[in-house]
Amino acid sequence: MQAESTANVEIATEGGDQSEGAASRRFGEAQAEVLASDPQAGESQAVSPPGTALIGARHDLKLGEGGKRIHCACVMAALGQASDPAFIWSSETAKTDPNRQLTLALSSEGSKCEGEPAGGLGASYWGFRWEGANVIVLLESASAGKPITSGAVLPRPTGNGQIYLAPIDPRLPYGKALNGSGERCKLGNPGAPQGRAE
Questions:
Q1: CA distance 89 to 87
Q2: Which pTM was predicted?
Q3: 141-183 pLDDT, tens per residue?
Q4: Whether the Cβ atoms of residue 168 and residue 177 lie closer than 8 Å to each other
Q5: What phi, psi does 34 have (nearest 5°)?
Q6: What are the φ and ψ backbone dihedral angles of 105, each rounded to 5 degrees?
Q7: What is the 3-state secondary structure (H, E, C) of 137-158?
């Protein structure tokens, strides 16, 4: 989890401190501190099982045409196992532990979005945080000069926890519930609820 946090701080602080980007970067730095740890969650929640893909962003993963898609504000997403037909891997399919990990791919390609930033290139994975037993995936607005991150390997929520999408900045539309019915969009927790990893 620390590696994820550090990477996000670096992304959040790129470039100069001018225009509205500065406020967004400061918000990102504050959010990155939340990503580093959650006192309510065991450390084991942030650790990848031996021999499996690391938890965090995947630049070799895209949303495919098959499988089940979940529609959220300005974003389509798929959540499941790495081998699911919803996912397209540009390299070898990641090896994941189905009891402790889930794979996420998302795309805002082709969607017209009210509230999308001018010059934005769509939604991009930024990171995640724990909220009790739930995993909240945070989305940012992609911009020129920064690659769009459209996939991630996530820890499976504990107990009856769920995975949600939400924008890193509440002013962004990406990942909110459809029709303005909430600030986050529920993706679920495919498979049987899991206990806390030991």
A1: 6
A2: 0.74
A3: 988 888 889 999 999 998 899 999 999 999 999 999 987 778 9
A4: no
A5: -65, -35
A6: -130, 145
A7: EEEEECCCCCCCCCEEEEECCE
Using left for φ > 0, alpha for ψ between -120 and 50, and beta otherwise, residue 26 falls in alpha
Q: Find, among 74, 76, 71, 67, the residue nearest to 151 by Cα.
A: 76
Q: Which two tokens stand for residue 51?
A: 């021999």
Beta pairing, strands 185-188 & 123-131: unpaired
pLDDT at 114: 84
CA atoms of 177 and 162, how far apart (whole Å): 14
Please state, in angstroms and rounded to a whole number, the distance separating the CA atoms of residues 106 and 110. 12
**Token pair listed for 26:** 């400061």
Query: Tokens 């990102």 identify what position?
Result: 28
Cα(125)–Cα(148) distance, integer angstroms: 8
Q: How far apart are CA 17 and CA 109, in angstroms?
A: 28
